[in-house]
Amino acid sequence: MIPATAFSGRNVAVFGLGGSGTATAKALLAGGATVLGWDDNPESVATAGENGIATGDLRQADWNAIDALLLAPGVPLTHPHPHWSVELAKAAGVNIIGDIELFAHERRALAPQTPFIAITGTNGKSTTTALIAHVLSSAGKDTQMGGNIGRAIMTLDPPAPRRHYVVECSSYQIDLAPTIDPSVGVLLNLAPDHLDRHGTMEGYAAVKTRLVAGSARAIIGVDDEHCRTIADQLEKAGREVVRISAAGRLENGFFAEGSQLMHAEGGDARPLVSLDGVGALRGRHNAQNALAAVAASLVCGLSVSDIQAGLRSFPGLAHRMEQVGRRGRVLFVNDSKATNADAAAPALSAFERIYWIAGGLAKEGGIESLKPYFSRVAKAYLVGEAAPSFAASIGEATDYEISGTIAAAVEHAARDAAGDPAGEAVVLLSPACASFDQFRNFEVRGEAFRQAVLSLAGVKPNGDRE
In 10 A of CB 451, how many CB atoms? Predict the structure, then answer.
């Protein structure tokens, strides 16, 4: 735990007593603050009380005696309308912050030079965070990973010299961290997302920009117009910007050329590392993630050989193009985290011969945007509520069946893939749907796929070849 000593002796209201909110309340208490917590969910309030956190309805609190409101990132700050706790805090002139802001205070106080790599973007930030942490750890660095992935940031070990922090930051968390100041800030990409919480694309982009604007060095993916503009603006303002691209050659920066990751200076480019044979980093989207990891790791002083070794040993992120196992020439891939069509597109673009398991609770637009990839699909196995509508979208573009369940889909897809005339094939769970019709969340859905695959006779786990 990182005790939040910056608020020692002060009164802090905490709204949102889920996992991160409770962890942050405990950090505030450990740092000497007086905490009053509340949540709209009575069960969360009761659990917080059992964990030693004083609770009370913040509607009845004396806001003139409160020094700060610590808001959980899932609670609306501005859109679609501010939460009632936010309105009360603003009316009283109380500062509203989140757990990333607390960490920034403690790092500045305890070890301001300790590396702090913060990663954001619409897509790929979890994989990039895990990849950077893995490369650093593999090279023997004391590495702490958390934030929007894994552990709440205030549950990590306290800042200390030479301790490396690799932190995934959602737009909600950045919005609550006005003084965020990473040593390295990574902005991967921007596409319309969470506009219900940020109002407009411009508002969403402005929040994401704060992370790299406050960084000592900004690493920015320039494969979309929004990020190109941000990189240009920061550079004109005198900030140090490193550009990365998985889509084309750069005069200066890091770019992908096939499986080679290149470094260019003044138009002269040289290969640094290769993604050949790195199954967990297939596809152009993962080339971008790897480029960010290379650039960040070089800033942290790693050698090229250390970075190459870290990339090769990266196991991938659970439920995101996770290689579950292999039987003969058939690979089984768990991409359960693909909960909409845009999220499923990278996996469908990464493989040539796919036995595709899709379906669940459909999002707006269904799989219409995935039609360009149907030529890669040997057969689709449709599950859940979306099965009939997905069948209509596929039409005559490729073969399909309505399997109904993950277990049935895995059994049928494994059978068909084994007889594929091309030999090499992938059984891919990339649902392009939410999971809530049949599963509690995408993790449970992915685990159901994993267990169904591993129960098949002759499957070798973790993608090992026979």
Answer: 13
Backbone angles phi, psi at 398, to 5 degrees: -160, 170
Cβ of 426: how many Cβ atoms within 10 Å? 26
The span from the CA of 160 to the CA of 151, in Å, is 18
- Hey, which residues does 136 pair with through a beta bridge? none
145 closest CA partner among 281, 73, 443, 131: 131
- Answer whether residue 193 shows pLDDT above 90: no
Q: Note the CATH architecture for domain 322-461.
A: Alpha-Beta Complex (3.90)
Number of Cβ within 10 Å of residue 250's Cβ equals 18
Where are the domains positioned within the chain?
Answer: 5-97, 100-312, 322-461
How far is CA 211 from each of CA 45, 121, 188, 207, 219, rounded to the nearest angstrom? 32, 10, 12, 8, 11
How far is it, in rounded angstroms, from Cα 196 to Cα 320? 25
Q: What is the pLDDT of residues 266-281, one digit of tens each?
A: 989 999 999 998 888 9
* Topology of domain 100-312, CATH: UDP-N-acetylmuramoyl-L-alanine:D-glutamate ligase (3.40.1190)
**pLDDT tens for each residue of 59-90:** 999 999 999 999 999 898 988 889 999 999 99
Residues contacting 306, CB < 8 A, separation 6+: 135, 138, 139, 297
Beta-carbon count within 10 A of 355 CB: 27
CA-closest candidate to residue 61, choices 112, 5, 15:
15
With CA atoms as reference, report the closest residue to 174 among 148, 193, 192.
148
pTM value? 0.85
Paired tokens of 350? 């990464």
Nearest-angstrom CA–CA distance, 103 and 312 = 31
* Helix, strand and coil in the chain, % to nearest 5: 40, 25, 35
Fold annotation for 5-97: Rossmann fold (3.40.50)
Host H or E run for residue 456: none
